[in-house]
Each structure stands twice: as structure tokens, then as C-alpha cells.
Prior knowledge:
elongated; RNaseH-like_sf; Zinc finger MYM-type protein 1-like
Amino acid sequence: MKEKHQGVHKRLLDINPRSFYTPCGCHNLNLVLYDVANSCTKAISFFGVVQRIYTLFSSSTKRWEVLKDSVPDLSLKSLSQTQWESCIESIKAIRFQTTQIRDALLKLAEVSEDPKTKSEASCLATYELEDFKFLLSMTIWHDILFAVNSISKSL
């Protein structure tokens, strides 16, 4: 967008030659968060687990119903690399309903006829949602994203 020879900046200069470029604070903040989340293997693993939980339930209406029966309040959201508000909403749903989501995963492992789904649900419930590192990462990332989301909205 800030390219002087093409893009939005060029178009603005064509309309008003005295215009100047001001970088977008929200965009820069999102780029920093994206780089932070992709520079640490623990963060990559954490966001991967959050996305796996969402993908497992959202890939079938029957699975989504199992989730809705166990977790009535907050709903899972897909992660976005540019919209961190969706990330905080998904993490918030898991953070404040961890036991209900774990129960939904275990229930899904029981009722599913697909062995891959059974295995994935059981592994997520047992080895991820009960893992101290995951729970700690969830708390830390929720606090970071909550603060960044507040700043982003005020920008």
C-alpha cells in the first residue's frame, strides 16, 4: 500500500500531490503479532492445536452438534493470520470452557464411527487440553491478545 509507483499511495498522490503516507497502526500491530506467533515453536504448536480443535468440530454438522450440546455459551472460531480478534474469540472460548470442550472431545471419541476422528478427538482431549504447557500458553496468549485487541480497537 505504501508503494510510491503503484498501489493506493500512488493513486492518492495522483489525486493530491501534497498527500503523504502515514502507516496504519492496526496493520503494523497485526504484522508484529503474526511474526511473533510464527517465530516461536511453542506458539506455532499452540495455535495449531486451537485450529485442530476448531477443524475437528467444524468439518461435520454432527460433530458441531456434539460441541453445541456440551458447550452452549461461547463458540469456537477459526484462526486468522490477519484478524487477531477471531483468535482471541477462539482462545476465549477454549480458556473459559476447557472442561466442557474436553468433555465434548471425549464424547465425540465415543460416538464417532470414524477411527481417525476417534483418535484425533481422544488425543486432543487427553494430550493437549490436559497439558500444562497448553493451558499456560492459552492463558498467556489470551492476555496478550486481549491487550492487543483493545489497543487495535482504539487505533
